[in-house]
Hints:
Blueprint: H1 3-24, H2 29-32, H3 38-45, H4 49-66, H5 70-77, H6 79-97, H7 102-130, H8 135-167, H9 174-180, H10 184-193, H11 220-249, H12 254-269, H13 271-279, H14 286-305, H15 310-334, H16 339-371, H17 375-395, E1 399-401, E2 407-409
Antiparallel strand pairs: 1-2
Organism: Aliivibrio sifiae
GO molecular function: transmembrane transporter activity
Keywords: Membrane, Transmembrane, Transmembrane helix
Amino acid sequence: xxxxxxxxxxxxxxxxxxxxxxxxxxxxxxxxxxxxxxxxxxxxxxxxxxxxxxxxxxxxxxxxxxxxxxxxxxxxxxxxxxxxxxxxxxxxxxxxxxxxxxxxxxxxxxxxxxxxxxxxxxxxxxxxxxxxxxxxxxxxxxxxxxxxxxxxxxxxxxxxxxxxxxxxxxxxxxxxxxxxxxxxxxxxxxxxxxxxxxxxxxxxxxxxxxxxxxxxxxxxxxxxxxxxxxxxxxxxxxxxxxxxxxxxxxxxxxxxxxxxxxxxxxxxxxxxxxxxxxxxxxxxxxxxxxxxxxxxxxxxxxxxxxxxxxxxxxxxxxxxxxxxxxxxxxxxxxxxxxxxxxxxxxxxxxxxxxxxxxxxxxxxxxxxxxxxxxxxxxxxxxxxxxxxxxxxxxxxxxxxxxxxxxxxxxxx
Length: 412
């Protein structure tokens, strides 16, 4: 083999990895960039707290409805092309929501949600296909990159808004320019991903979809995993939407609130580096998953009682939600005995879990609107943390679901 061919063979996996990481960086950041400037958007468009909460809810509904359909898309046009479609949807969605009107804001956010749903489902399948021996390591890295991308998006939202003010542009609002500023990230990802379009491969057998395993929907063990993931996302997306507003009302500046919101995103990624190696050693994960609920309770309680130490509470809360998400995904594998059953459970958990999560920002906004304070909404989150810790005592059991929907211990 010539040196030129050797270089090409070695360089290609590196290019795929870079592409994967760039795609991952766009799978949360378009949503998290909304939080720090949500008040500006609400005031400019005259949105109520409930309507503002719905901005974060819209992509969650897209996750719920489009995640199970993503594998069908990949089977028709190929895994690589589907991921490019995801990036295109995210780019178009960012452009649409930056036009400055209420209708375009919600429409663009919906399109972004569809793109993220496709990427969320298909990216793990790509990892398993191309790097089967490095799945754990690369998963940890790409979850970390998701957190870094989200952190950057949150942190630059307010500075970009003020930069827009200095430009004195009147065609669109300053907040729209801030939202548009992150469009460069999916564009870069598309350019790097272009060489992969010459391939046309199907998703792996365990890619999430709702298939003929109807007994899964009758299995209590499957619902335990679904509720665990749903409650985790319920409180996580509340804080993605509302944390900056809570912090500003607690005395922090808009810049500080934006940076702390970015810290939340980064802290959700850290558990990937800690938990993924640890989980392989623990067959019974009840203590670990219950600990995430407790840690989340302490973080929210601390923010409610001692907001002056917000950085500490935000790191604790972010770690717990990131850790809970990783554990919830691992439960899908633990509870199932083959790839097709895993796909069925994953499709169910994503569909119903995100539908539950979609109610979070709206309920939080409604309570705030009704009471004029953040106290009762935060207490609601504390109650959810207790329920989350409680369900983890069941979801964390090493049970495998049989084809009749009954659960059996994976080991004795």
